[in-house]
Hints:
By secondary structure, the chain is an alpha/beta fold. The chain has helices at about 40-50, 65-70, 100-115; strands spanning about 1-15, 20-25, 25-30, 55, 60-65, 70-75, 120-125, 130-145. It has one domain (about 1-140): D-tyrosyl-trna(Tyr) Deacylase, Chain: A, CATH 3.50.80.10.
Amino acid sequence: MRVLLQRVTSAAVRVADExxxxxxxxxxxxxxxxxxxxxxxxxxxxGKIAGLRIFNDESGRFDRSLLxxxxxxxxxxxxxxxxxxxxGRRPSFTDAAQPEQARExxxxxxxxxxxxxxxxxxxxxxGEHMSVDIHNDGPVTIWLDSDEW
Length: 149
């Protein structure tokens, strides 16, 4: 699994001009699922994200986690994180999981985040064309890839 994580002051996702998810302070997670991904990868990423100390303490140091600050999460499916653009000009997405597999693991990942006590956990609509408003804070943007662990 791959996650592009962004710390935000607020974020929202719309489908066909309807807001389907929004948060205040917290994280936007753009999530891609690969062929070989399963629940162990989702578990590890969810735990890492919940405890990652990337929010400022009183002295401005990264010393607080999402759970510490009570932030929310907006999770958006994004198969394009598995784009392979090494050849030609059109990216290949053959490393991304098939939609059925990806949707199942995406839903599991969202449930895992909720189970860790993160509130709210909002999502876009899987497989839909979405417009995402991200108000990046910092900016803080971090790449997480379960294959690198």
